[in-house]
Amino acid sequence: MMEIRPLLMCFALCVVYATSKPTEKKERVHHDAPLSSREHDDAQGFDYDHDAFLGQKEAKSFDELSPEESKRRLGVIVVKIDGDSDGFVTEVELKAWIKKAQKKYIYENVDRQWKDFDVNNDGMISWEEYRNVTYGTYLDDPEPDDGYNYQHMMARDERRFKMADQNGDQIANKEEFTAFLHPEEYDHMKDIVVLETMEDIDKNGDGFIDLNEYIGDMYNHEDEMEEPDWVATEREQFSEFRDKNKDGKMDREETMDWILPSDYDHAEAEAKHLVYESDSNKDGKLSKEEILNKYDLFVGSQATDFGEALVRHDEF
């Protein structure tokens, strides 16, 4: 429990009261990581598809497996991908699986923190548990001498917790807690990401981000230093692209377009590709048989992203 408080201090220092070096650019924009570092060229092999479907980090886990064993394990995973258990895998289900596989590092991060907050070991984390572990005795001192407003920080956390808690019971399951810790990864949390960003940058409290606030968030000016070239570029970016309605400031919609851009959806494109290549009867969805018939496209003789977990347990 004591380890949480230094983390809180670090979070407050790095996020709420960020003080980057004068010549460093703070990055606010959230981009999806690429599915693979390899070129997507099926004529040269299915390495890209394996990385996308399995997750890059784990794609080599089953290199030593025979094709028969890989195919057998893929059959188990097909059942997991089929979210509605109708016997078919749709593009939507495949896209969700790929996104989950690519975000394994996020789930690992949540797993590491889970035991610290689930105080009563009931497999859930209540707001009360999170509040007590994170803030604890800091709230007993109405005027802390370290410069941090813990009441404000706690209120902000509670607001985010409530948005992540989709059933409104003030208790987070694993997925809800993941949304709380990593809101940028969830569509229903985008509004809170934008709101928190605007609150951080909007120093005059008018509900908008003007040019000076935009630059001030990225660059800590020091009189004795010459302004780096990238600052001038960002001024142009603000005027030409960020401030779409040319009123000299960014509103909520403009801020969302900036920090959460509508990037090309690689997971959706890969899901469409896998279905197109495997859908032998062209009904727009994949049966287990169709997937296994093209097993080398999905896994070949390599593991799924969850291969290690499957090996650790006796699901096979």
Automatic annotation (TrEMBL):
<keyword id="KW-0479">Metal-binding</keyword>
<keyword id="KW-0333">Golgi apparatus</keyword>
<keyword id="KW-0472">Membrane</keyword>
<comment type="function">
    <text>Involved in regulation of vitamin K-dependent carboxylation of multiple N-terminal glutamate residues. Seems to inhibit gamma-carboxylase GGCX. Binds 7 calcium ions with a low affinity.</text>
</comment>
<keyword id="KW-0703">Sarcoplasmic reticulum</keyword>
<dbReference type="GO" id="GO:0005794">
    <property type="term" value="C:Golgi apparatus"/>
</dbReference>
<feature type="domain" description="EF-hand">
    <location>
        <begin position="266"/>
        <end position="301"/>
    </location>
</feature>
<feature type="domain" description="EF-hand">
    <location>
        <begin position="152"/>
        <end position="187"/>
    </location>
</feature>
<dbReference type="GO" id="GO:0005789">
    <property type="term" value="C:endoplasmic reticulum membrane"/>
</dbReference>
<keyword id="KW-0964">Secreted</keyword>
<feature type="domain" description="EF-hand">
    <location>
        <begin position="105"/>
        <end position="140"/>
    </location>
</feature>
<keyword id="KW-0256">Endoplasmic reticulum</keyword>
<keyword id="KW-0325">Glycoprotein</keyword>
<feature type="signal peptide">
    <location>
        <begin position="1"/>
        <end position="18"/>
    </location>
</feature>
<dbReference type="GO" id="GO:0005576">
    <property type="term" value="C:extracellular region"/>
</dbReference>
<keyword id="KW-0106">Calcium</keyword>
<dbReference type="GO" id="GO:0005509">
    <property type="term" value="F:calcium ion binding"/>
</dbReference>
<dbReference type="Pfam" id="PF13202">
    <property type="entry name" value="EF-hand_5"/>
</dbReference>
<dbReference type="GO" id="GO:0033018">
    <property type="term" value="C:sarcoplasmic reticulum lumen"/>
</dbReference>
<feature type="domain" description="EF-hand">
    <location>
        <begin position="69"/>
        <end position="104"/>
    </location>
</feature>
<dbReference type="Pfam" id="PF13499">
    <property type="entry name" value="EF-hand_7"/>
</dbReference>
<dbReference type="GO" id="GO:0042470">
    <property type="term" value="C:melanosome"/>
</dbReference>
<keyword id="KW-0677">Repeat</keyword>
<dbReference type="InterPro" id="IPR002048">
    <property type="entry name" value="EF_hand_dom"/>
</dbReference>
<feature type="domain" description="EF-hand">
    <location>
        <begin position="189"/>
        <end position="224"/>
    </location>
</feature>
<comment type="subunit">
    <text>Interacts with GGCX.</text>
</comment>
<comment type="similarity">
    <text>Belongs to the CREC family.</text>
</comment>
<keyword id="KW-0732">Signal</keyword>
<dbReference type="InterPro" id="IPR018247">
    <property type="entry name" value="EF_Hand_1_Ca_BS"/>
</dbReference>
<dbReference type="InterPro" id="IPR011992">
    <property type="entry name" value="EF-hand-dom_pair"/>
</dbReference>
<protein>
    <submittedName>
        <fullName>Calumenin a</fullName>
    </submittedName>
</protein>
